[in-house]
Amino acid sequence: MEHARAALSNLFGGEPKSYTRFSIARQMDGDNSHVEMNLSADDEEGGETGRPEHLHASMHPPWRIDKNRCFLIIAALLLLLIGFLIGYLSYRGRMQKASRCLDGSGNCEATPTASYLVDDNETEEEVPGPPVFYWPKLRGLLSDKLSALHLEDNLRQRANKYSFEAGQREDENVASYIHEQFTSFRLDEVWNDEHYIKLQVKGRSDNKVSILEDGKEEELETPDAYVAYSKSGSVAGKPVHVNYGMKADFQKLQKDGISLNESIIIFRAGRITLAEKVANAREAGAVGALMYLDPYDYKNTDALVPFGHAHLGTGDPFTPGFPSFNHTQFPPVESSGLPRIAVQTISSQAVGKLFRKMDGERCPLDWKSGVMGCSVIQKSTSNMTVKLSVNNVMVDRKILNIFGAIKGFEEPDRYVVIGAQRDSWGPGVAKAGVGTAMLLELARVISDIVKNDGYKPRRSIIFASWSAGEYGAVGATEWLEGYSATLHAKAFTYINLDAAVLGLNDMKISASPLLYTLLERTLKGVKDPAKDLGSLYDRVGSDWVKTVVPLDLDNAAFPFLAYSGIPVVSFGFYNKYEEYPFLSTTQDTVENLKMCVNLYPLMRAAAEVAGQIALRLTHDHELFLDFERYSEELLAFQEKFLLYDQDVKTLGLTLNWLFFARGDFQRATDALRIDIANSDRENRIVRRALNDRIMKVEYDFLSPYLSPKDAPFRHIFFGKGSHTLQSLLENLQLLRASRDSVDVNMLKEQLALATWTIKGAANALAGDIWDTDNEF
């Protein structure tokens, strides 16, 4: 024991205190050995140090035993440290899933790379401790809590009401009711958003459609409905029927030598929006337009006249590109999408009378019109004209958007938005009531899961009730314009609930490619109310992506995608071969909708789809956005462009730079996928940075070379204008058909802007500036 104390004293507490140089010599004397140490240069030179010349001569023998004991102590300490490290790593491995679940969000999700690459049914390790929310459990809670009875109660708000016109009493009453409901659901924040807008409404006297013949005027109809943003006044012209009013229909008549200048165009509803039909009529030289519900497409609507708007755009057309707040005083300005021709809707009965008066060239058989005596133009000997008198007036209205939020526990400043239009011309049950009822039910159920069951979403969920949606997504667009500088960096998805139930047999889907994978998985997990064992996925089939419908201007999701660059999804039940006949009419009532569909089970199924998408986007570590989908979309366009490669070369141009940019985007998506796979999922800073890169994909496809005021819909895939890839393709097709009619400078600009928009998207997706490469 004394030897050990002496060794430790010399090692840890003994002298000398100064630095030394060691000269170690091992001597072997049989079984004994010792170490000789010269402590300093002074000793070597014979200087006095106050210590013996040989250290071993003054220590307790044997030094070998003391040394070995020291080595044993050090080895024991090292073994203890190694054991601790092994235990820690083992514990961390066992508890990794728990740390993912209990990192402050209360969620659990096992995702090795991107969320959309993981099987929903993959088994997850059960970890002892507080309850966690694996995705199957969360999905089950949502399904169990959604109630068809609650949906029915919410829809009763529309019963026996004639109109919910934007900014009027009924619209404001429903806004107050929604605000109260959001508050009663204990949402974290509830607030209003006011906008002061200009609407065109029906004047004191009815609009009128007349027939002028031989100096006599015969009234054809004075409809109750009207078309907002029509040009006011009276116009007259010869009537010409142009089927659905699509560009192809106009081109067919013009090819047949039928003049459309100074005419009154007649077209049937459907296929494209009323605003697009009117824009086509104006471009063809018409002075007025009439639209009706053809009985072939819309059954039992002979006397019905639909409401509509003719603004080729979204939002308030008198504040294009900027918000309609009360304190903004811009000089007078108008949207270029205003029609500047007179427009009115009429009944198919009135159109039948007009056709009998025309008695000219019959409609082609492939038009399949349901109106007897369908005529394209009047007989050549007739001097009959149609007179259209529009008395609409402009009014200033205050509208309210109502919001409620459930705040995320990890990233409260990132949110998914679920929205529905509240207003309607007429009862608007299918148009606005169904979506509003679903919005309230989803707010109730998701809040209950958070407040009572303990689910803690990573990100926030915002519930939005829009006003003035009937006039072209005015409320939604004004909100986007008001917060355009920040929303694209915070809102990562918009889920549209409007018109979710218009039929029984089929599903119609419009969505950003980023949400295709999530939507497909969601449909597989929601039961079809019409089939005991089937899912909604069975309705759309494995090739459902090929049937995705482009968003139109009347869809509130359109400005989110094309103006703000926010991924969107809009879906609903419908009948492929028979349109819901009462949309935007005075007959859009609860009773009529229930006669057409199995209403409440379908509403519940649609709400479950929307709720699952919202919850999945707030549940996973990584955003469930399939950023690799756009590589496929770009490749599809490249294949179409490649057909015109030689045509472009004859102009001394090349498509190679455009193709190289697409390749750069592909490499950027590959790099992001690898970065996600190699990242530390427990590091919130790293995870947030990766999610931000995913969020920006949609926004980066907005052309940065255009003014949002002059060309608000800048998305190169889904926008409107010459900057889009579709417009470039059409110009290439025109180049082959008629080279002299192509503006070569415009084609050069299209190629350049498309190339650098895609290249810019690739650079942004790659991450930090030192990870980008401007070389093609």
UniProtKB/TrEMBL annotation:
One of the GO BP terms on file: receptor internalization
Function in brief: Cellular uptake of iron occurs via receptor-mediated endocytosis of ligand-occupied transferrin receptor into specialized endosomes. Endosomal acidification leads to iron release. The apotransferrin-receptor complex is then recycled to the cell surface with a return to neutral pH and the concomitant loss of affinity of apotransferrin for its receptor. Transferrin receptor is necessary for development of erythrocytes and the nervous system. Acts as a lipid sensor that regulates mitochondrial fusion by regulating activation of the JNK pathway.
Family matches, as InterPro entries: PA_dom_sf, Peptidase_M28, Peptidase_M28B, TFR-like_dimer_dom, TFR-like_dimer_dom_sf, TfR1/2_PA
Protein name per Swiss-Prot or TrEMBL: Transferrin receptor protein 1
Gene Ontology CC, one term: melanosome
Transmembrane segments: 70-91
Family: Belongs to the peptidase M28 family. M28B subfamily.
Post-translational modification: Stearoylated.
GO molecular function: transferrin receptor activity
UniProt keyword Manganese present: no
